[in-house]
Amino acid sequence: MPARSLLRIVASAALVPLLAGAAPARPRDVAVVIENMTYTPASLALRPGDRVTWTNRDLVPHTTTARDGRFDSKAIAAGASYTWVASGKGPLAYACAYHPAMVARLVLP
Questions:
Q1: Total domain count, the chain
Q2: Which of 33, 52, 60, 69 is the most buried (most CB within 10 A)?
Q3: What's the predicted TM-score (pTM) here?
């Protein structure tokens, strides 16, 4: 087979995923820091499958508790962390069960 024909076949094969739609994005590892009685960042855009890890840098325990019950870390001790894999759709508010003024949200498509 001539090199030009082979090149056309390879180039065409490379375009197939582009024509069929973008390949699904790989899940990301996303960090949220709990410090000074806040979640940072306070709002986070996610895709299903992203792994969110909350790390507690305060001296007291906290939780990350979804208002709709999708997740509940229970107590995260000082220096410890909790990981959740994003699922579902829409905005997802969460708070600390021990400190209700600590609020944040996740946004899923």
A1: 1
A2: 52
A3: 0.78
